[in-house]
Design a protein that fits this description.
With 289 residues, this protein is an alpha/beta fold. 47% of the residues lie in helices and 24% in strands. The strands form 2 sheets. Strands 3, 4, 5, 6, 7, 8, 9, 10, 11 and 12 form a 10-stranded mixed β-sheet that branches. α1 packs across α2, α1 packs across α4 and α2 crosses α3. The radius of gyration is 32 Å and the shape is rod-shaped. The chain starts with a helix and ends with a helix.
C-alpha cells in the first residue's frame, strides 16, 4: 500500500464516485477502481457499497476515512518539512575549546557567506566530547586537537603550542625545564582536556607528575588566576598572546619540553556529506576565512 492508495480512497469519499475522483486526480477511471480494489483486498475490508450510480461508505469505510485523512495530513506535513530542509541546507560543525575560540567564529561567517541560506550550528567542547558527537552523527565535521580514537577520519589541519605564563611581577623564573615546572604552583585545565593531556604526557615521559593548585575547564578562569599572581598557567599560546603583548602576562620559556601539538579536521568514517556540508568542509580545509 502507498500514499497514492490512501489519497485515491479519500478523493472517492469526497466525490462520491469513481468518475469524478479520476477527473480530479487526473488519472484514468480504471486506475481509481483498481486502487480501491487493492485497498479492500489487502486489508480484507469492504469500503464502499454501490447504490445506483453512487458509492456509499460502509461503516468500516467511514472509520477508515478519518484515519486516511490523518495519514495524508501527516504525509503532507512531512513533505513540507523535507522541502523546507532542502531549501535551508544545514551544517553542524564542532571544535575543541581552543579552536572554538580562534577558528569557529570566522569559519561560521565564511560558511554563511559562501553558502546561500545555510543554517550553520556549532558546538564547542572538549576533544573527547566533540569526537563522541562526530561518532554519533551529531556533528558533520570538527576541528580538534589532541588524541583521537574510534571510527573517525582525521586529516592534519594545523598546529599550535602550549605556553607557560604568569603575572609579570610574580617571583617566578624566566625559564624552566620539566622538573622545575612541576614544582611551581600550576594552574591547569582539567584532566581529559587536550591541553592537560599533552602536558601530563610530557611529564610522564620524564617520570614526573604535578599537583596543580587550580584546575578548571575554563581557559578564561586560568588566565585570570595567572594575572592575579596565583601561579603558572599552561595554555594554548594563541589564547594568551594578547595578554603577553599587553603586559598582563609574561611567558616562562620552557627548556627541553616540547608542547607543540597538531590540530585535526575530523568526521565520521564513511559519512555521506550533503552538497552544503561538502562545501563547508572545503571552506574549512582550504582555510577560506
Amino acid at each position: 500500500m502507498t500514499i497514492r492508495h490512501i489519497r485515491t480512497f479519500l478523493e472517492v469519499c469526497r466525490q462520491g464516485g469513481v468518475t469524478r475522483a479520476a477527473q480530479n486526480l487526473c488519472v484514468a477511471q480504471p486506475s481509481v477502481s483498481q486502487a480501491i480494489a487493492e485497498l479492500e483486498s489487502y486489508y480484507g475490508v469492504r469500503l464502499f457499497e454501490r447504490v445506483g450510480r453512487k458509492l456509499i461508505l460502509t461503516p468500516e469505510g467511514e472509520k477508515l476515512k478519518a484515519k486516511a485523512a490523518e495519514v495524508v495530513a501527516e504525509f503532507d506535513s512531512f513533505e513540507a518539512a523535507a522541502t523546507a530542509a532542502r531549501a535551508t541546507p544545514s551544517v553542524r560543525i564542532g571544535a575543541s575549546m581552543t579552536a572554538g575560540k580562534i577558528v569557529i567564529p570566522r569559519l561560521i561567517c565564511a560558511i554563511q557567506s559562501h553558502i546561500e541560506g545555510v543554517e550553520c550550528r556549532a558546538l564547542v567542547d572538549s576533544t573527547a566530547a566533540i569526537v563522541s558527537e562526530i561518532s554519533g552523527g551529531g556533528l558533520d565535521f570538527a576541528i580538534v586537537e589532541g588524541s583521537i580514537s574510534g571510527d573517525i577520519e582525521a586529516k592534519e589541519w594545523g598546529s599550535d603550542r602550549l605556553a607557560a605564563v604568569c603575572a609579570p611581577s610574580a617571583p617566578l623564573p624566566q625559564s624552566a625545564d620539566g622538573a622545575s615546572l612541576v614544582k611551581l604552583p600550576l594552574l591547569l585545565r582539567l584532566r581529559g582536556s587536550a591541553s592537560r593531556d599533552l602536558l601530563d604526557s610530557r611529564f610522564s615521559e620524564r617520570g614526573l607528575s604535578c599537583s596543580p593548585v587550580v584546575q578548571s575547564s575554563s581557559n578564561s578562569a586560568l588566565i585570570a588566576a595567572a594575572e592575579e599572581g596565583l601561579g603558572v598557567a599552561v595554555l594554548p599560546f594563541a589564547l594568551v598572546e594578547r595578554h603577553i603583548l599587553r603586559g598582563q602576562l609574561r611567558e616562562i620559556a620552557l627548556v627541553d619540553l616540547n608542547l607543540r601539538r597538531t590540530w585535526f579536521a575530523v568526521w565520521r568514517r564513511g559519512k555521506k556529506f550533503s552538497p552544503a556540508q561538502k562545501r563547508a568542509l572545503d571552506i574549512c580545509m582550504n582555510r577560506q576565512f
